[in-house]
Design a protein that fits this description.
This protein is of the alpha+beta class and about 775 residues long. The protein is about 50% helix and about 10% strand. The chain folds into four domains: about 130 residues, no CATH class; about 30 residues; about 160 residues, Sec63 N-terminal domain-like fold (Orthogonal Bundle), CATH 1.10.3380; about 220 residues, Sandwich (Immunoglobulin-like), CATH 2.60.40.150. Strand 6 and strand 7 form a beta hairpin. The radius of gyration is 42 Å and the shape is elongated. It starts with a strand and ends with a helix. It comes from Polypedilum vanderplanki (Sleeping chironomid midge). One of its GO terms (biological process) is post-translational protein targeting to endoplasmic reticulum membrane.
């Protein structure tokens, strides 16, 4: 059969192409872009939210952040509805084409039975043609054409044979391939317009769109931060490794996101020339006379003034500087996270020897960056009381929290007070204001922070040897602060450790005690990263107290040992003193003791099997958890946890945390800070670092810091008893074969498989 290619004259194949292309786009677009109606807010949930003035204003700001939201939603709905209507119309057209092409039956069209004679066919044709002829009032041209084609197919002998044999009056048709383009596209009269449209779409519009997207994407990192800003951070943190908190604020204000030349969203007003200088006069520690570039530029000074005003909670003009403050604060969480990442990279580069050890940033620098995040979210300086994070609470109210009977300085202490005492402290508040305080306090986080230490790839995971890879599993369990309400026993029932102020002070005091026993070092690198030398003060360090966050496995084993020792002591005490006359009785009871010993041995073997099966189950569970962690890394972590009460921050903020391990003695960072962004109820984080290169007892610190709340930071001491690494055998025992054994082995190899017994005896002789 012949083949021929033709353009779509009737339009059927073109409709097929348009129908499939439209369905391919319309179905996922409807699934993703159809505006979902928000569920009607639960009135009980609305009552549980804070109704303070700051939160009410914040909700209004969030609602008005996109004024064209309703118009965009309406446009999306209209576009999707139009697309579905077009899809239904095209589907109907295609169904009509299929019906006309696949339902040509001449007998059915003429209304005669199969096998009718020519006379019967002619009679039926003339009868129907008088009805459907186009010249008649009831005529229809399409129906008349079908009647004529059916009449010819049944009156012509050859056409009738072709129909009965091939199902087509014309006989076997040639295979044709239709191109799904209408013929007018290739007509000579329309060639100029078609080529012009092709050039406009594929040679102008598409390159411009791709180029614009590429230019914008290469300017930003994966965390929505300008690459130029990241280079700026690298420069300043490398220049000033030990950076104070106010210096960090200056670097943050110099970010290029706030410069009009790098960010078109920045708004510059003529009123800034009057309002910014007047604001600077109210900020005594702004350091606006700094001559260092770009810290002295106008945008940097203005941003710094807005940050200081925010931390001091100064009122600003709602039409000008207040809008600028909100714009600056929206960018700050991403920028602070980028600062933490930059400092961590500089520390890793210093450990790798890429930069000078004198440029190694101490742990204080990266912690100052972390401290800045909750300060900006809550609008408080670091030296302010964490109680000011509660609604309606001011400096004047704090005087009631300090008296001879009590000294309340943290949110946890305030939550443990009985309701009568807490109400008396806030005696100036109305019932509604006091209710807002309790609502906010009850939803604040209470983190149970514990650690587990092991060496995963070692045979004995509980023993840490020199140079081994130590895995610290940080276990975080989040509860609400309402669990502490009315709890007067602070030390026994509170499972968290407050370390924002007291924890760090105690840590510094402990460091001072350790420094009395250990010689001070001037090196900024951790001592175990240098050449290995045996510790001279080994006997002194072994007298240190046990770690607060000891791993669970070691505590279990030590408890078992203590129980066994106590049992043995009791057994020795209760054992009666044997007399000489009782020797016969002892001999008679020996057999029963042996039988009991056998039964106990069998029980012990059964217990060992059970424990081995439990250990195997634990290993399988750990492997399953590792697979889940790998899948989480590939799919990306969730960034939804719990909303933060922050009325001065203009957007919804989720609770995030940093956890890391550091050495307070050498002021160095051991692990990269892990940003926990999905702590809803429970989360486990694995931190890995290399153990010191020589044996001894070392004390490190596992830290947990909040990026949203002040006064929620915690730290646990990690005490490692590092053992000496086993010596690597120079020769394998299987390879150490004596000469006599080699000769004997050669003789055996030389013996044939078919040697007789006499020959074997001779060779043995």
């Amino acid at each position: 059969m012949g083949q021929k290619f033709q353009y779509d004259e009737s339009g059927s194949t073109f409709f097929y192409f348009i129908l499939s292309f439209l369905a391919l786009i319309l179905i996922p677009a409807t699934f993703y872009f159809w505006p979902t109606r928000k569920k009607s807010e639960d009135p009980n949930k609305a009552k549980e939210e804070c109704q303070c003035e700051g939160c009410c204003e914040k909700r209004v700001i969030i609602a008005n952040i996109d004024p064209y939201k309703n118009l965009k939603s309406l446009a999306v709905k209209a576009s999707l509805v139009f697309g579905w209507m077009l899809l239904i119309f095209l589907a109907y057209k295609v169904s009509q084409f299929d019906y006309e092409m696949s339902n040509f039956d001449p007998y059915e069209i003429l209304g005669v039975p199969i096998g009718s004679s020519k006379a019967e066919v002619k009679k039926a044709y003339f009868k129907l043609s008088t009805i459907w002829h186009p010249d008649k009032n009831t005529g229809d041209e399409k129906v008349f054409v079908k009647l004529t084609k059916a009449y010819k197919a049944l009156t012509d002998d050859e056409a009738r044979k072709n129909w009965e044999k091939y199902g087509n009056p014309d006989g076997p048709a040639a295979m044709s391939f239709g191109i799904a383009l209408p013929s007018w596209i290739v007509e000579k009269e329309n060639s100029v317009w078609v080529l012009g449209l092709y050039a406009l779409v594929f040679m102008v519009a598409l390159p411009i769109a791709v180029g614009t997207w590429w230019y914008r994407s290469i300017r930003f990192s994966g965390d929505k931060v300008l690459l130029d800003t990241t280079q700026l951070y690298f420069y300043f943190f490398h220049k000033t490794p030990n950076m104070a908190l106010k210096r960090v604020i200056m670097i943050l204000a110099a970010s290029l996101e706030f410069d009009k030349r790098h960010n078109s969203q920045v708004t510059e007003r003529p009123t800034d020339n009057e309002e910014v200088p007047s604001l600077i006069k109210q900020l005594p520690h702004l350091n606006e006379k700094c001559k260092e570039l770009p810290l002295c530029r106008n945008y940097s000074v203005k941003t710094r003034a807005l940050i200081h005003a925010h931390l001091s909670r100064l009122p600003l003009n709602p039409n000008t500087l207040e809008k600028d403050r909100q714009f600056v604060l929206r960018k700050c969480p991403y920028l602070v996270q980028e600062m933490v990442s930059v400092v961590n990279q500089l520390i890793m580069l210093a450990y790798a020897g890429r930069i000078s050890a004198s440029k190694l940033p101490p742990i204080e620098t990266i912690e100052n960056c972390m401290k800045l995040s909750p300060m900006l979210i809550q609008g408080l300086w670091e030296f302010k009381s964490p109680l000011l994070q509660l609604p309606h609470l001011t400096e004047d109210n704090l005087k009631y929290f300090v008296n001879k009977k009590r000294y309340i300085k943290s949110l946890q202490q305030f939550a443990k007070l009985p309701e009568s005492e807490s109400r008396s402290l806030l005696r100036d508040f109305t019932d509604e204001e006091y209710s807002n305080v309790i609502k906010v306090l009850s939803k604040m986080p209470l983190i149970d922070f514990s650690i587990k230490v092991e060496v995963v790839d070692d045979e004995n995971s509980n023993v840490v040897t020199a140079g081994a890879i130590v895995t610290v599993t940080v276990n975080l369990v989040r509860r609400n602060m309402s669990d502490l309400f009315g709890d007067s026993s602070a030390a026994e029932k509170q499972s968290i450790k407050e370390s924002n102020n007291d924890g760090e002070d105690n840590g510094n005091a402990a460091e001072g005690e350790q420094k009395e026993n250990v010689q001070p070092t001037t090196a900024k690198k951790p001592v175990w990263l240098k050449k290995s030398h045996k510790s001279k003060s080994k006997s002194k360090t072994t007298k240190a107290k046990p770690a607060i966050g000891a791993m669970k496995q070691t505590t279990v084993t030590t408890n078992n040992i203590k129980e066994n020792s106590n049992v043995s002591k009791e057994h020795n005490v209760k054992q009666p003193i044997k007399d000489e006359n009782d020797s016969d009785a002892d001999e008679s009871s020996a057999e029963s003791d042996n039988e009991n010993a056998d039964h106990e041995a069998d029980r012990s073997t059964d217990d060992e099997r059970k424990t081995s099966s439990v250990e195997d189950d634990d290993m399988e569970w750990e492997k399953f958890q590792q697979k889940l962690n790998k899948r989480e890394k590939l799919e990306g972590r969730s960034k939804n946890s719990h909303s933060v009460h922050c009325p001065l921050y203009p957007e919804d903020k989720q609770e995030y945390w940093w956890t890391y391990i550091c050495d307070r003695k050498s002021q160095t960072l051991l692990t990269a800070p892990y940003h926990v962004t999905n702590l809803v109820d429970h989360q486990e984080v694995q931190l890995k670092f290399t153990a010191p290169r020589w044996p001894g007892i070392f004390t490190f610190t596992v830290c947990l810091r909040s990026d949203s709340y002040m006064g929620m930071d915690q730290q646990l001491d990690l005490k490692l008893d590092v053992k000496e690494a086993p010596a690597i055998p120079t020769e394998h025992p299987q390879w150490n074969i004596s000469e006599s054994e080699e000769e004997h082995q050669e003789e055996k190899n030389n013996e044939s498989e078919f040697t007789t017994d006499s020959e074997m005896s001779d060779t043995e002789k």
